[in-house]
Design goal:
By secondary structure, the protein is mainly alpha-helical. The chain has helices spanning about 1-30, 35-40, 55-65, 70-100, 105-125, 130-150, 160-170, 175-195, 200-225, 230-240, 245-255, 255-270, 275-280, 290-295, 305-330, and strands at about 105, 160. Strands 1-2 form a two-stranded antiparallel sheet.
């Protein structure tokens, strides 16, 4: 009897939480189909009983009355797809290396890298008058070559291994986004002055979002690659198959469930990202979160139009969540997420 009571209480709590989670989505959905008069007259909940649904808000949105809807939709689709693909590809390669190879990075070599990169940049820019892109690019190359060379020497101090490198990747998401976003804005502005268009550009946004999604990809794929038996790769190496062929033709096909899960998670973060798009775009490549934030007019908040924009923004992520949930229930993602 007591167990039955506990089950009923648990079911009641679960249903209450489900209602709390779904009601805002339902409210956005019904508001998008309400005429303006029905929105202003008060709360109504059930179509055809409380109000007569209409597609007028959708017609206004896509006709251009509420601004350009199609360009932000295309921008979000293009930027999110390309950025997710690059993040997962580069993150998978980094994660595979962290699982299969042993890294020994001397802290002193890293400090030398920072000194040369930062100090050399300041010197070449201020003393020699180089442009920001030229000074930054040249000093990064010199610092990288020097630190790699020093890392092979006997240096005093601590040594960072694979777990430390993994933590470094994940730690990039611990900083407040405004810190990196504002620095990236200043860099892009200087590159624009030098004739390399990065602000309000496809390449600039993809580069920023790829860096944004890379730590998630490394973190998730590292756990998945660790579950793949190394004997499969050793058997391939016996047949004189190169490491790159092993990665692309054996490891990645075996990692499809993990790649799908990682891609969907990274895509959801990139699709909903607001701050980078706000700072790095102005008109041409603005994304859906920027469109949604700007749905105000001189007449006040037109909630039917705001609901249409919100509905367009949230539908792709609902589809992704449903697809990911079905894969998890069917066991296709076993071992890919811990």
């Amino acid at each position: 009897m007591e167990n039955q009571l506990h089950k009923r209480i648990g079911l009641g709590v679960a249903l209450t939480w489900l209602f709390i989670c779904l009601f805002p989505l339902w409210w956005v959905l019904v508001t998008a189909f309400k005429p303006p008069l029905a929105v202003s007259q008060g709360a109504t909940y059930i179509p055809f009983l409380d109000f007569k649904p209409t597609l007028q808000a959708f017609r206004d949105a896509f006709s251009g009355i509420r601004g350009d809807f199609m360009s932000p939709i295309f921008s979000s689709l293009a930027v999110s797809t390309v950025s997710t693909a690059l993040s997962v590809l580069l993150g998978s390669m980094a994660a595979y290396a962290l699982v299969r190879f042993e890294f020994r990075i001397k802290l002193l070599a890293g400090i030398v890298f920072a000194i040369i990169a930062i100090g050399g940049f300041i010197f070449t820019k201020e003393a020699l008058g180089w442009s920001v892109p030229a000074a930054l690019g040249s000093m990064m190359i010199i610092a990288l070559v020097t630190s790699v060379w020093l890392n092979g020497k006997k240096l005093p101090g601590p040594i960072m291994k694979n777990d430390d490198v993994t933590f470094w990747f994940v730690s990039q998401r611990m900083f407040p986004p405004i810190v990196s976003a504002f620095a990236l804005f200043l860099l892009y502005a200087e590159m624009n002055k030098s004739g390399v268009r990065m602000l309000d550009s496809f390449a600039g946004l993809v580069l920023a979002y790829t860096a944004f999604g890379l730590p998630f990809a490394v973190w998730l794929m590292r756990d998945f690659f660790s579950t793949i038996p190394v004997e499969v790769e050793e058997a391939a190496m016996v047949d004189n198959i190169g490491r790159m062929r092993i990665f692309f033709q054996i490891v990645l096909p075996m990692s499809k469930p993990g790649l799908v899960a990682t891609s969907m998670i990274v895509l959801s973060f990139i699709w909903n990202e607001f701050l980078f798009a706000l700072l790095l775009t102005s008109s041409k490549w603005q994304t859906l979160p920027i469109l949604l934030a700007g749905q105000n007019s001189s007449r006040g908040d037109e909630w039917w139009a705001i609901s249409v924009a919100a509905l367009i923004s949230v539908i792709p992520m609902i589809i992704v969540a449903i697809f990911l949930g079905r894969m998890m229930r069917s066991g296709l993602l076993a071992g890919s997420i811990k």
